[in-house]
């Protein structure tokens, strides 16, 4: 015999599932997406790129760089944008003193160029990136906001990006949906 509490719980679960299915046609997929954890913080699909990034412990260097370049308002705007977000560990792989030099006011143009090289107009999910590579016979190009293209490749189910200097970064966390696009966490800093 099922007790009253269990029946109410089951009824609530069924109602929630029914509501989710009925809303599915009216709301974008991102609104129903799971909120993945990045850098110890949940990434809410209802928040924009900047609102989420500031909460990730793994992206403090990126956030500081975005602030130094004056790109906060741009990345908080409607977009949509696809952002390839290097982790603190990715920035740490750069030669000693590189980040400290880049965030100086006199290097704002160079920093802006590097950061906008990590941004693509529109929302490209991992599935979209894999299709671009497949349609290109194993690799394809995507044009960045900076203007210089990135090469997209896949190895199995992994997505890799290669910059103009031949540096490669792997997408380590894909499809972190945002209200104004998508973030893909990467393990390297790309350079135009």
From TrEMBL:
Point out the coiled-coil segments of this chain: none
- What is this organism's lineage? Bacteria, Pseudomonadati, Pseudomonadota, Alphaproteobacteria, Hyphomicrobiales
Signal peptide start-end: 1-33
Q: What range(s) does the FAS1 domain occupy?
A: 46-190
Keyword vocabulary terms for this entry:
Signal
Name of the featured protein? Fasciclin domain-containing protein
- SMART domains on file: FAS1
Say which species the protein is native to: Methylobacterium marchantiae
């Amino acid at each position: 015999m099922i007790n009253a509490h269990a029946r109410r719980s089951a009824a609530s679960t069924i109602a929630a599932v029914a509501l989710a299915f009925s809303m599915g046609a009216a709301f974008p997929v991102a609104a129903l997406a799971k909120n993945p954890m990045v850098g110890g913080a949940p990434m809410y699909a209802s928040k924009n790129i900047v609102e989420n990034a500031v909460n990730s412990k793994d992206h403090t260097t990126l956030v500081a760089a975005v602030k130094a370049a004056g790109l906060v308002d741009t990345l908080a705007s409607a977009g949509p944008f696809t952002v390839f977000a290097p982790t603190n560990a990715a920035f740490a792989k750069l030669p000693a003193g590189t980040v400290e030099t880049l965030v100086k006011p006199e290097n704002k143009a160079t920093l802006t160029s590097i950061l906008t090289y990590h941004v693509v107009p529109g929302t490209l999910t991992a599935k979209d990136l894999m299709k671009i590579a497949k349609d290109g016979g194993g690799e394809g190009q995507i044009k960045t906001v900076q203007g210089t293209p990135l090469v997209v490749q896949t190895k199995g189910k992994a997505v890799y990006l290669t910059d103009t200097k031949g540096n490669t970064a792997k997408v380590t966390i894909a499809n972190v949906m945002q209200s104004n696009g998508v973030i893909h966490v990467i393990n390297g800093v790309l350079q135009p």
